[in-house]
Amino acid sequence: MATLLEYLPLILFFAVYKLVDIYWATGVLIASSIIQLAYHYFHSGKIATRHWVFFAIALVLGGMTILFQDEHFIMWKATVIYALLSLSLLVSRYFFNKNLVETALLGLLKSVNEKEQGKNAELDISLPKSVCEQLNIMWMLLLAFISVLNLYVAYNFSLDTWVNFKVFGLMGITFGAILVTMARIYKYLPDDN
Q: Can you supply one Gene Ontology CC term for this chain's record (predicted)?
């Protein structure tokens, strides 16, 4: 259910675009992002910073798309988000000496372990720093590449092609990167996981 909710704005954006047009789709993207925020608030009592950031970007660029009737503003949304993510990895690692990819991976593994073993289960896992560094660089470069690729597709192909790329291409690239990440850390996972 949580995974579906994460992708709900994107799914609705795609469906409404195919049924109506980009401006209605953008309005639905903003509205479904509000619903997503409300769900997170009522479900867990808080809203993660990333949800606020994604919503703010959707609201500003989506609002400009609707106000000025210019789809180029919404086309910039993915570029801004992926560029900010890439920049976050860069700044946190080289200015604050914190590897966000390592933090996210260990948090995810801990969460999976708690669901399988119970709340008080200890997670006996450590990832080599060199592997975490490689993965941080991989994700930083990949996110920067995606931000540029989104603009390339937006300005060199039709609106239909860009929407399909945004929904299926970006999701495919991200899924592929997740598979590479999992393959890279697999041998460091405990045998029972």
A: plasma membrane
Model confidence pLDDT, tens digit, residues 55-68: 899 899 999 999 99
Tell me how far apart the 2 most distant CA atoms of the chain are, in Å.
56
- Is residue 139 within 8 A of residue 103, CB to CB? The reply is no
Q: Give the count of alpha carbons within 13 A of 118, CB side only.
A: 2
Three-class SS of the chain? CHHHHHHHHHHHHHHHHHHCCHHHHHHHHHHHHHHHHHHHHHHHCCCCHHHHHHHHHHHHHHHHHHHHCCCHHHHHHHHHHHHHHHHHHHHHHHCCCCCHHHHHHHHHHHHHHHHHHCCCCCCCCCCCHHHHHHHHHHHHHHHHHHHHHHHHHHHHCCHHHHHHHHHHHHHHHHHHHHHHHHHHHHHHCCCCC
Say if residues 89 and 142 touch (Cβ distance below 8 Å): no
Determine the Cα–Cα distance for residues 46 and 127; give it in Å rounded to an integer: 30
Within 10 angstroms of residue 185's Cβ, the number of other Cβ atoms is 18
In this prediction the pTM is 0.82
